[in-house]
Write a structure and sequence with these properties.
There is one protein chain. This protein is an alpha/beta fold. It has 2 domains: about 45-130 and about 250-290, Periplasmic binding protein-like II (D-Maltodextrin-Binding Protein, domain 2), CATH 3.40.190; about 135-240, D-Maltodextrin-Binding Protein, domain 2. It is about 40% helix and about 20% strand. It has 11 helices and 13 strands. It has a 6-stranded mixed beta sheet with strand order 2-1-3-12-4-13, sandwiched between helices. A 5-stranded mixed beta sheet has the order 9-6-10-5-11. Strands 7-8 form a two-stranded antiparallel ribbon. The longest helix has 28 residues, at about 1-30.
């Protein structure tokens, strides 16, 4: 009996040793690459892995256009942060101060004037679209109703005031000094003939849509017209989209001098000149915004 018990205990001990060997073998031969782990996850990369690009813009249309190309920028490795402004001064001061990587709201003549007046060193990285400036109804609904002494509101910043004055001249309402063109920086002092004695009222561009009930007509920048719920079809007359003004007053991406060829800014230009951007502009703004790329 003792012999049988000894043999039984020996058999149990051997089985235990064999089981221990099998467990060790399983642990040491497992290929980690075949096991699911965070390192081998097939989930999309988090946006925190993207480099952030911060762009200042007015909400309409610039902020909307930027939002439309967010996916294009992500494909290029950038997470877009849009900072919205309601005027034309803060986006440039924020860019000059380093709070933005770029801005998208202005044309180059305005930028040139801003640099000269503020001592900034901002440059254009590329032209994206053109917004024909239009004359919109105020207290009167047709240009045929224009009469002596009527008030017309126009932007008071140099480049946009020039555009407004040139539009009034093209309509035959005033005559400007010789040599005034799209690249000039004219004011109402450049008017040499005003046969109807029109009261041409200069004011901040963003305020003109709000004073339309108080003037006969207002000449409004495209973005502020859109923000006020107006479209190109509401304008009684507009700048010719095929004119020199279309190139002179093309809306640009601006950045600090020296950054224009950086990977970040070039990625922004690539996104804003993509087919996605063109299709969005053409299908959204009914001619109030015109791509020029």
């Amino acid at each position: 009996m003792k012999k049988i018990l000894a043999l039984t205990l020996s058999a149990i001990l051997c089985l235990g040793l064999l089981a221990g060997c099998g467990t060790e073998s399983s642990t040491t031969t497992t290929d980690p690459a075949t096991e699911p782990s965070a390192a081998t996850s097939t989930e999309p990369s988090s946006t925190t892995e993207l480099e952030t690009i911060t762009v200042g813009a007015t909400s309409t249309p610039h902020g909307e256009i930027l939002e439309a190309v967010r996916g294009e920028l992500e494909a290029l490795g950038y997470d877009l942060e849009i900072v919205t402004f309601n005027d034309y001064v803060q986006p440039n001061t924020a860019l000059a101060d380093g709070d933005l990587d770029a801005n998208y709201f202005q044309h180059e003549p305005y930028l040139t004037t801003f640099n000269a007046e503020r001592g900034t060193d901002l440059v254009s990285a590329g032209a994206i679209h053109y917004e024909p400036m239009g004359i919109y109804p105020g207290s009167k609904t047709s240009l045929d109703e224009l009469s002596e002494g009527d008030a017309i509101a126009i932007p008071n910043d140099g480049s946009n005031e020039t555009r407004a004055l040139l539009l009034l001249q093209d309509l035959g309402y005033i005559t400007l000094e010789d040599g005034i063109d799209a690249s000039s920086n004219a004011t109402i002092e450049a008017i040499v003939d005003n046969p109807l004695n029109l009261e041409i009222t200069e004011m901040n561009a963003e305020n003109i849509p709000h004073v339309l009930p108080d003037v006969a007509f207002g000449i409004i920048n495209g973005n502020y017209a859109l923000q006020a719920g107006l479209t190109g079809n509401d304008a009684l007359a507009s700048e010719d989209a095929e004119s020199d003004a279309a190139q002179t007053y093309a809306n640009i991406v601006a950045c600090r001098n020296g950054d224009e060829n950086s990977d970040k800014i070039q990625a922004l230009i690539t996104a804003l000149t993509s087919d996605t951007c063109r299709e969005y502009i053409e299908s959204t703004y009914n001619g109030a915004v015109v791509p020029i790329f």
